[in-house]
Here is the input.
Amino acid sequence: MRRAVLATVCLAFFMTMLDTTIVNIAIPDLRADLGASLGQALWVLNSYTLAFAGLLLTCGRLGDRYGHRSVFLAGLAVFTIASGLCGLAQDPAQLIAVRVLQGAGAALLMPQTLSIIMTVFPPDRRGAAFGVWSGVAGLATIAGPAVGGVLVDALTWRSVFLVNLPLGVLAFVAGRVVIPPGGTPGRRRAALDPIGVLLSSAGLSVLVFALLGGEPYLAVLGGLLLIAFVAHQRSAQRRTPLLPFRLFHDRNFTLMNAVLMAALFATVGLLITYTLYLQSVLELSPTQAGLMLAPPSLATLIISPLAGRLAGRVDPRLIFGLGLSVFAAGFVLLALFSDGRTNALALLPGMLLCGVGAGAVFAPANALAMREVPPELNGAASGVVSTLRQVGTVLGTTVVGAILQTETNLVQAMPAALYTVVAVLLTTAAATWWTRRPAVQHTHP
Here is the structure.
């Protein structure tokens, strides 16, 4: 039964993560069919991210109040229906509107996947479960262009949305059958904080919008709203805060969120840089470019469950120091061979190193971050982890994208982008020296 639960939540999670990248490859066909401007096309991408990132913190807490299974199924239903509406959209405005709805559905279900794993799996088996979950995340993030390229080439741009319909129905039916409806301790006390919801959602949305659009004044506004949110939460800690500060009393929770942000920063940096490089410089087709980005995702999928089993069994500093360093080495190797003249296959060793490094980091970081979270705060903790993952993704998009635009020649701009990612990974690896080794847990019968 546990495996069925894991398969169900991973299928739903895969869909939400896939839709952060699969649409990119369909933009040219989408623009031609709907007559969308470049600005409207960018909003098709960013509206999903804005709704997704802005609501994650609140939606994680909703699971503590209404039950993780109920909120998961509600989010899955909203996401699936919105995906169908995206595939039927007749103009850019309709598509942007239903992409916002799709992002809201994703925000509802994604934090619940972590909480459900925490509830269903005993502590000694969570590492492997998080390994599978993390492998699926890496696969979905990098596989988007490959899946999108095949669908667009074989069918139409609408297929990148409509493919979610059968998957969503399957996940919903399976979720109703296999996920236990049990609640969490303290659920009745977890009342929502309306002021906190407003400040956090507005602050995160404005900040993400500012980062995506390169608007410094809006970034300041978003930062001020988040400062106001934290100040409000400080006064709410004795009641039922949206963001319980005691989560951050666990040093590992704080450090692992930093690790996950850095790993997502690097993953998105790899995706953006080489989606452009493979098609614009090496002149590969969308399908060929997508397939070239598949090996690192497969490496992540294979390594993550193995690394997850190590969480809590060996010194975390060894895991994260080695994993982040391998990840960085992959980027160094890619930088050495991305000169515009090398055969695409020469990039494969660097990409595989990136995939192995990511797989060695994601699963242990998720498991260690959630390991000592009290059951009544599972939803809040999942919301924080999910939100900061998205912030890392947006920062990767913003920083790497800005560096790539500093030069008219993409090949000349790439070394700066790639070595910036290396610096982020190695700095984070150094910070993990302060990770605390958790208490050894006995094997569950």
Q: What stands out?
A: The chain is about 80% helix and 0% strand.
